[in-house]
Here is the input.
Amino acid sequence: MPENIKTSKKQEVFKNTMEELFEKKYDPIMENSSPVIQNLRQKAFEIFKQNGFPDKKTENWRFTDLDPLYRDDYTIDLETKFQKTDVNKIFTCDVYDLDTYCVTLINGWFAYKNSPLTQLKDGTVIGSLFKAMEVYPEIVEKHLGSIAKLSEPGFVPLNTIFMQDGLFIYVPDDVKVEKPVQVINIVDSENPVFLQPRNLIIAGKNSKITLIHCDHTLTHNISFTNTVSEVIVQENAYVDHYKVQNKGRNSSLITSLFFKQEKDSRLLNNAITLNGKFTRNQVDLSITGENCHADLNGLYLVDSNQHVDNQVFVDHMAPNSLSNQLYKGILDDQASGVFSGKVLVRRDSQKTQAYQNNKNLLLTDEAKVNTQPFLEIYADDVKCSHGATVGQLDPNAMFYLRSRGLCELTARQLLMFAFADEIVNKISIEPLRDNISKLVEKRLRGELSICDQCILNCSSREPRFIQNFMD
Amino acid sequence: MLKIKNLNVSVEGKTILKGLNLEVNEGEVHAIMGPNGSGKSTLASVIAGRDYFTVEKGEVTYMGKNLLEIPPEVRAKEGIFLGFQYPIEIPGVSMTNFMRTAINEKRKHLGLKPLTGADFLKLIEEKKKLVKIESKLTNRSVNEGFSGGEKKKNEIFQMALLEPKLSVLDETDSGLDIDALKVVANGVNTLKRKDNATILITHYQRLLDFIIPDFVHVLYDGQIVKSGGKELALELEEKGYNWIKQEVQAE
Here is the structure.
């Protein structure tokens, strides 16, 4: 192998374009930022210039081809276009029985009717990050960029350079937010568009919040979204976080989700990918205090030539905590998938329990998955395990079902659904679980492509999976 | 009902059944006994429609149709039931959903309307009582975490729900304690009707203390080498399979 594998031409061009864009738009970008944020952008820019994008040699990017993302015809909005939009006019979310505080980001910009920042009765603030930088500079400056790793090649620095808006949530200490917060990320553009939303969520001490992120596209046009989220889970807080992706077949998505858990906190993260041309979900969790509990679950259902890449990194920096990863995927047609789960248990993190498991079903000979569960342990008194399976539907189970009169297709769907259900079952909000369960069923029957409305809008109330199932 | 003529079956190039003949009529209970490796389970699989073997020669007709051309799910809907020697655990598939789907697929095949939820639950309760099976089995995923006895009882429960014409019970008695064995036997006896038939495949005579067969066949080296009434089972119990082996070798 040559000493220096040259980065691809497209990648080089795209890197140059980004650098030029920053230099050209330097004034308007910096004008709206406080000195602290200016410094952060500048630092990110230096790092980006130095490190550029990951290439095929970069660990954790080896199995993912980024070239199709590096286009020269993207529209990039650095000025808000949707600040004051009546979202209901272009979009209604009709989630049966799911009562949420629902907010919308359109092309990365926070959409609102009255105010870009809402304060609930309990003191929780939900709204636009752009506005929060102005109204709550001390909170934003303290946390923004505090856990997102600029050392990650490419996309985290790039987002940090250009970040404009996104979701901001601040839950004060001791507040249990009554209803889940639902964030709908809509991409709606005629032209190919490159978006870089930035989210910042701070859950104060002893607080509790449930957050549902839905990613979806209104059109089949080309889009590339590079999201960075930082979620800070303070002492004894409880964060229940869901990510549901049902993107169009021309949508590419890179999501870098950083969590920090302080002592006695609890985190539940579910990443559910139902569709999307290219989806990469990176979850990076730092457990910084004792007695934390983290469940990181994922489900990916891909077909045609879709590609899904899940990267999970858990850093046990403190003793007596537990992390549990379970990712399951069903890959059909020529779809490809990657799972890379890494757990680092540091030397003093005794009594750590860390488990990781990745299970895959390949439905065709052409579907493929690369799975790498990985443990790196420096403490000697720990309980850790890892495992990965790649297989087909169990022929014995298939025959068992068929021998009772179920046709081959029904038997296949039943087994696939059962496989996926292990993850769906871990969703703690019942209406959300029911909705996602239905979505998964529809997806496995091949009926779900891309909803015209909200990802969770299954208002058609179709009969369950197989028409004669129990209600 | 079932006619098997000169059946030759191979698995991965090895001939397992070597010219097997069997006829089962309505209202009959047949016991097929034989030492390990004689082809008993292969016979059950051929009837139910597994596809890992090759039929080299011979024919199998069921209700006048060529059974070998019919896919397993259609056989089931036409009334064939296989009680598995090792019932499969299927996590995530609930017993009730599975059975309701199975029953309604069968009803559709027979041109009947699907059962409503309420009717289905009524049927479940009725059949549980009939075969004396505890309720907890039906609230779980198919066979998941079931003990050996529970799995076998669950097979009988499914048989009761599906009301087959021809049941093939493959070593349903193996690994059962005496109480579970009685539950299984009671199920089979209760479900017996004039218009259905049962093939019991077993290694031991023990099951036949509780289910009285009309015919006993000894399967050895891929052929039925001896047939008789229920006394044959007792004779086998007494003399062991070596007696049969010697007889066959002497011919």
Observations:
- The two ends of chain B are 32 Å apart (CA to CA).
